[in-house]
Write a structure and sequence with these properties.
Chain lengths: 345, 345
């Protein structure tokens, strides 16, 4: 048995009544093996649960998996860009591919690849335990919950980002500031909202629970929550939108309500995706270095593959505020004017 | 020698003075080989130019390359989404990774992978010849030039898309319609502009060369060309922007000039990326089924890998017009009003 608990190729060769060289040829898809022999050897390999260790390509580059959530957001593209800039060969798997009865953890760990980079919207306890217990090294990007040192991870300073976004709005003179987070339990969203609370409290302002909303990190969530916010008796004059996609939903909902951004409503995003610059108006947003997070995680995985030890504490890369054109001081009429416009629209 | 003109593993084993089983262990990164032996065998494998044929993963899925242009556009993400929905394992390579002295064709063909899906901004004649002459099957997605039957390809009905976009603007009453294409020689861009010309000519309208502009398919190109168009003595009342990213640049340039979309300027995109729906206003655009193009190309590559023959003529998937909120009839004042607003801004 090998280190992976697999049959040796010698044992398979003996059982099939062929040479080791023949088994090797079958594994390498060589043509100089008869169809019958090929089928017999493949059957035995399958029966013994043989997993070929396809760890490196022809140029000695490690072959690893990158597990991404649904490929429906530029967020995934930014991370991919960073990962592919590393000296790893990366097979992309999306959770939306419909894994069927096999869990994605089993798929990734059973693929015979050297390691895995994991970006998933919710890492469950069983998934975390499965990854942590596997021999295949894994690094988690933008973790959704505390990893308690069981897996190395790379994230961003989300709390500091939330703090900077909210302070920017406070400095412009806003006092009725709403925040739309991501799904309730997601770590990065909770940290951003913590930063929002800390910014308000440091100025002696109370947090109004009506202005703190969960979202989905997508356009739809930003749109729906903004419609609800604008129906409040005392609507906000600014929204910290939690993600750029959500910020685009806020801008869209404002437009539907007849409000101008930033004149009537200031909006701050989070991520600094390319689309933040393309938006009209270009979005003020908190930049998290997604591509750099991807590259850093890939370098950490490479180090693990080369036998280095890594500290298991989370790595956090710095966020920074990018001020563009979606934020401005509240208009003279302030909240009242927003309310009046909403009432008219 | 094997079919690939490579050394047999037996010859490498003999030269290294070890058994074939030991060579096999080295190739599989097994730990039960001494460091010295491992290094000697690896050196010999390298010296003989050995390319392991890493064609399938542990589950029998083919391992192929996907060559994408710079990963800076949601366009690439859409294609990737379609490709990963196929039963292929896909290693993503980006042309922006800095291939160095080795061309990307050599990298892809020398990786030992089973096949390649290729999306590149410009496929040069030498690259096309190199791919067509290789044993590794390749399928081109959204080809940038005619492939003359040397490689199978999947594209979209770009001419029909350009026709539909321009007819939509004509039907709204526009007569001064500009078009911004992609880089001058790119096939899909030329086809879209052909459709634009055909639509105008079928209504007996002459094509004004001032209104036909090359772009770069990015925000910057749309922005710069729109600024130039708005400086014309007789500016357009509508722009067919050639791509969604370029359309966002047109919208941004209009905003900078104090023009409202669609009231003062109608804008039609091309692609129907998710960002087209998130934009304010949501973009009227020509949908090309990028994900479906990716999936179709993957299925064609799979067929080639399984030994099927494919027709070498280009496959074209249908485009369709999505009417949203960035197009409207020209305002009463028409061109004159646009000119007046531009003069004021």
């Amino acid at each position: 048995m090998t280190k992976h608990g697999q049959p040796t190729l010698g044992a398979v060769a003996a059982e099939a009544g062929v040479s080791l060289a023949t088994v090797s040829k079958v594994l390498n898809d060589r043509v100089d093996v008869s169809a019958g022999t090929r089928a017999r050897v493949r059957r035995l390999l399958d029966a013994h649960g043989y997993v070929p260790t396809v760890h490196r390509n022809a140029r000695g580059r490690w072959l690893v998996s990158l597990v991404l959530p649904a490929l429906d957001s530029p967020y995934a593209l930014e991370i991919l860009r960073g990962v592919t800039a590393s000296p790893l060969d990366v097979v992309v798997c999306s959770l939306s591919d419909g894994a069927g009865p096999t869990s994605w953890t089993d798929q990734v760990l059973g693929s015979g690849r050297a390691g895995a980079l994991v970006v998933v919207p919710e890492l469950t306890d069983p998934e975390r335990t499965r990854l942590a217990g596997a021999r295949t090294p894994c690094v988690v990007i933008d973790p959704t919950g505390p990893l308690d040192g069981v897996l190395p991870s790379v994230g961003a300073t989300n709390r500091a980002g939330g703090l900077a976004a909210t302070r920017h709005l406070l400095d412009l003179g806003h006092r009725r500031i709403a925040v739309i987070g991501g799904p309730r339990q997601v770590l990065c969203s909770r940290a951003r909202i913590e930063g929002y609370r800390a910014a308000l409290e440091s100025r002696g302002l109370a947090v109004d629970p009506d202005l703190v909303r969960p979202g989905d990190f997508h356009h739809a969530g930003g749109f729906a929550q903004t419609q609800a916010l604008l129906r409040l008796p005392d609507p906000p004059t600014a929204v910290f939108a939690g993600s750029d996609e959500q910020a685009l939903g806020v801008v869209d909902a404002a437009r539907h309500a007849g409000l101008r951004v930033p004149d009537d409503l200031s909006v701050v995003g989070f991520d600094d995706l390319p689309v933040a610059r393309w938006s009209s108006p270009p979005l003020t947003t908190v930049r998290q270095p997604l591509a750099e997070m991807g590259r850093t995680a890939a370098e950490m995985l490479l180090a693990l593959l080369e036998g280095e030890q890594l500290a298991r504490r989370p790595v956090e890369l710095a966020t920074s505020l990018c001020v563009r054109s979606s934020t401005a001081p509240p208009s003279d009429g302030g909240v009242g004017q927003v309310r009046a416009r909403v009432a008219v629209a």
